[in-house]
Amino acid sequence: MNVIALANQKGGVGKTTTAVTLSDGFAREGFKTLLIDLDPQGHVAVSFGLEKTAGLYSLLCLDEPFDRVAINVRPNLDIIPGNKQTEMVKRQIILSDFRETLLADKIKGLRYDYILMDMAPSLDVLHINGLFASDWVLIPTRLDALAVDGVKEILLTMAEISRNGHPFRGYGVIPTFFDRSTRETLIQFKELVSTFGKNVLPPVPQDTRAREAAAYGK
Predict the structure, then answer these.
(1) Rounded to whole angstroms, how far apart are CA atoms 143 and 147?
(2) β-pairing verdict for 136-142 and 170-176
(3) DSSP H or E stretch at residue 6
């Protein structure tokens, strides 16, 4: 089982789109996949044309059985949706004796090839829980100075978690909204490659069809 967090402390960089698209891609390739929404905006469910529900809250706070909160959305693909009640999960984590590993303990032993987590653009106890549960971290980023700074902040957080005994297997940086016609985009892309080297994955071009797809749950 591989657990992958989609994270950036800057919002609007394409985390949910990347998480949904990657999860669907794994499922289409025949891998049993789970996507967990850790963002109170609940956009994972919306991306599949579903209503937002308190799946993560029910799992972690009400101790509902996993098979009652996971929703099958496509062959080989399940999701644990979220909504505004996800904010209340943070209180449960703070009160827990195992606050950093509450989520990791819940997903341990699940029979999936891949578990992906769509993280909120914030640094709080739920965000830290997601990172502690992860083997890999993918960091989508727009190619502008503020978003690239968000990449550096995530890596600093990962380094601190590693010092506390959690062994990440690796990370990748995904440049999103790539526009070859914009000089700033090219400058920031070169800076990204210069700083992070082979950890920078091929850029994802800006495409209105990706934005339109969510409106149709596709």
Answers:
(1) 7
(2) parallel
(3) strand 2-6
Contact residues for 85 (Cβ-Cβ < 8 A; gap 6+): 40, 54, 57
Query: Which residues of the chain are under the pLDDT cut of 70?
Result: 97-98, 211, 214-215, 217-218
CB 78 within 8 A of CB 33: yes
Closest CA to 122 of 41, 8, 17, 44: 8
Helix (H) or strand (E) run with residue 4 in it: strand 2-6
DSSP label at residue 133: T
In this prediction the pTM is 0.90
Closest C-alpha to 153, from 12, 9, 7: 9
Q: Which residues of 128-149 are buried (b: 16+ CB within 10 A; e: fewer)?
A: bbbbbbbebbbbbbbbbeebbe
Q: Are strands 33-37 and 114-118 parallel, antiparallel or unpaired?
A: parallel
